Backbone:
């Protein structure tokens, strides 16, 4: 392994593990234009989303998500595509306040047509890409790593192989002074007491218990018992019996480090340590929350396998079982199924995951990055039915 | 109506004014693979964020929404691209679609060798569908037209009269903020064509399966981006029948040329 980290130094002490030029549409009608610009460019990335400027109960959550995502330190620069509304302007101002230093805003109102926006946007994106490629990585401290811990398509081996192995890697990074963030409230339901017991002070412990209770109440409010709806059908086919069993396995991703704090959806951690973030278990909404919370590298464990990636955060995927790793070779970066096969120990796989995180942080591309997987989804709390 | 429109006979889906092959991702996780297949076979697909992490009434609601899109008259055949472990199971969705239309296939990423394997298998399946289901030409005497009303316009009643007077059936959907949810509603009503009068604060938008004629208002934004619209409101009553005739006969609307159109499915419960 390389024992030195090299990253992109940002203004105000932030570190990027990638130097992305993000084309960010701030209205859904501009999403296909953003995608066309990124596809035609020399390496810019884009996301799509379905927010059309609606001012409703989810507005604050959506503005917070897009503001945080735009200011993620993995972004060298952002090209904002707007229709010219004040909500869009507040996102751009907010992103600058959170540390985004290079951005250009294209306004449909000023340009006059989507076609013009695409041609102007391509030139601007390519200029940014040229600048970004000229910037070099420099030696960085371990605190530059802000790791996100995620699992999806869990199976009966998740809590025995990939998740505890990821816990080993997470513990080592936290010990070195990095930050590690566990997400997915759905997936710690029933295991929150174990995390609360590791809290650095009673207040943090109380907050994580309250956060999980708030989450369950928001589901029960809809008249649905989440403990009946989870685990999902895919999980059950994978051998999981109850939500609690799934949660006990999922929480192992966070190892044994003390719990430094809890974060709201998309909130960024300010000091190093282990955190919990309140996100849905929906993998893509959850990744959007991580991006908004300035996480710069993600490890995603999976029992069933998924192509999922992020436009801005390298996402390392780890399989819980060897048959899945062998059957879908272009989706998974590392196999932790070797633990169940008796080929490797937990500590050995933990080492491999740790080393992979460092290599990827230093620039090695993940399979999702090579495949161009840029899924994105906004998390909403309220209904969107037609009146 | 002046002359019948040459459309496409799409089996139980009805007669369409477009001949789209729909590559339908059953979950957000398969949208990228679906796009790669659709690009290769010149089919239609769309990004969405649904299919998993859903509970309660949303499970049946989203499932039904996908079925309605797949059964749309502008669709010739459907290839469902599933991940495998999602709530909306691709093979079950395909089984429901097959009950009304044989021109349906599905491929599952977790069972097709990953991304590259699924892209290759999906392209092959899409080509098989295209070869097996060639649509016959059919005369369409009257269209189902959806009107998306996003702004207060005194012309809506008159517009409806002009269209029904020409023999068309009209379905109206009010949209207060953006047109996206309204379009989804009109798609479920099987509108073959949509006329959209977006809010003065909103730009034009499209829908992947349905040509949308965007009507410009008199406000600052709409007049500034007039090039993105198909017609001005002041020309609407005089010009709409000719425009409908031409678009229904194959002329692309501006939003079709721009390839614009994201889909937002109606939801009743938060994601979990």
Residues:
């Amino acid at each position: 392994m390389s024992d030195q980290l090299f990253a992109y130094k940002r203004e105000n002490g932030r570190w990027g593990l990638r130097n992305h030029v993000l084309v960010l549409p701030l209205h859904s009608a501009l999403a296909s234009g953003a995608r066309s610009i990124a596809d035609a460019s020399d390496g810019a990335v884009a996301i799509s989303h379905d927010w059309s400027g609606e001012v409703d109960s989810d507005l604050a959550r959506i503005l917070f998500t897009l503001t945080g995502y735009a200011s993620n330190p993995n972004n060298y620069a952002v090209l904002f595509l707007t229709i010219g509304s004040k909500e869009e302007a507040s996102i751009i101002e907010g992103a600058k306040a959170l540390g985004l230093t290079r951005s250009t805003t294209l306004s449909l109102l000023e340009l006059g047509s989507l076609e013009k926006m695409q041609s102007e946007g391509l030139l601007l994106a390519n200029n940014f890409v040229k600048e970004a490629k000229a910037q070099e990585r420099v030696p960085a401290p371990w605190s530059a790593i802000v790791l996100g811990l995620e699992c999806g398509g869990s199976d009966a081996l998740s809590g025995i192989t990939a998740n505890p192995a990821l816990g080993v890697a997470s513990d080592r990074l936290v010990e070195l002074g990095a930050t590690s963030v566990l997400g997915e409230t759905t997936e710690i339901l029933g295991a929150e007491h174990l995390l609360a017991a590791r809290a650095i002070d009673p207040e943090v412990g109380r907050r994580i218990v309250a956060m999980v209770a708030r989450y369950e109440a928001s589901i029960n409010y809809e008249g649905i018992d989440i403990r009946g709806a989870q685990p999902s059908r895919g999980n059950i086919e994978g051998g999981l019996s109850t939500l609690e069993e799934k949660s006990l396995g999922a929480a192992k991703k966070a190892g044994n480090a003390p719990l430094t704090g809890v974060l709201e959806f998309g909130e960024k951690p300010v000091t190093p340590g282990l955190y919990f973030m309140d996100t849905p278990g929906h993998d893509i909404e959850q990744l959007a929350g991580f991006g908004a919370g300035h996480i710069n590298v993600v490890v995603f464990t999976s029992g069933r396998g998924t192509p999922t990636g992020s436009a801005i955060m390298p996402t390392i995927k780890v399989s819980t079982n060897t048959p899945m790793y062998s059957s879908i070779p272009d989706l998974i970066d590392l196999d932790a199924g070797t633990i169940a096969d008796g080929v490797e120990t937990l500590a050995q796989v933990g080492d491999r995951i740790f080393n992979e995180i460092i290599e990827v942080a230093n620039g090695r591309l993940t399979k999702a990055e090579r495949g161009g997987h840029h899924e994105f989804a906004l998390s909403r709390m309220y209904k969107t039915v037609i009146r | 109506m002046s002359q019948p429109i040459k459309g496409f006979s799409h089996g139980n889906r009805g007669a369409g004014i477009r001949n789209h092959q729909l590559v339908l991702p059953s979950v957000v996780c398969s949208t990228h693979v679906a796009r790669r297949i659709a690009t290769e076979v010149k089919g239609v697909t769309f990004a969405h964020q649904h299919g998993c992490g859903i509970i309660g009434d949303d499970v049946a609601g989203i499932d039904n929404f996908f079925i309605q899109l797949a059964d749309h008259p502008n669709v010739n055949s459907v290839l469902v691209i599933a991940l495998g472990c999602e709530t909306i199971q691709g093979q079950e969705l395909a089984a429901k679609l097959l009950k009304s239309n044989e021109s349906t296939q599905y491929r599952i990423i977790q069972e097709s060798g990953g991304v590259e394997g699924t892209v290759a298998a999906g392209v092959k399946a899409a080509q098989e569908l295209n070869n097996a289901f060639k649509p016959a030409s059919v005369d369409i005497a009257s269209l189902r037209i959806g009107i998306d009303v996003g702004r207060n316009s005194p012309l809506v009643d008159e517009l409806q009269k002009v269209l029904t007077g020409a023999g068309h059936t009209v379905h109206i959907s009010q949209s207060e903020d953006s047109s996206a949810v309204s379009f989804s509603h009109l798609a479920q009503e099987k509108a073959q064509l949509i006329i959209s009068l977006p809010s003065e604060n909103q730009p034009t938008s499209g829908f992947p399966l349905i040509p949308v004629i965007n009507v410009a208002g008199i406000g600052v934004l709409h007049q500034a981006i007039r090039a993105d619209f198909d017609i001005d409101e002041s020309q609407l009553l005089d010009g709409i029948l000719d425009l409908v005739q031409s678009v229904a006969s194959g002329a692309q609307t501006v939003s079709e040329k721009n390839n614009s159109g994201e889909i937002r499915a109606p939801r009743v419960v938060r994601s979990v």
Chain A touches chain B through 77 residues (CB under 8 Å). Residues 114-134 of chain A form the longest helix (21 residues). Chain A has 15 helices and 14 strands.
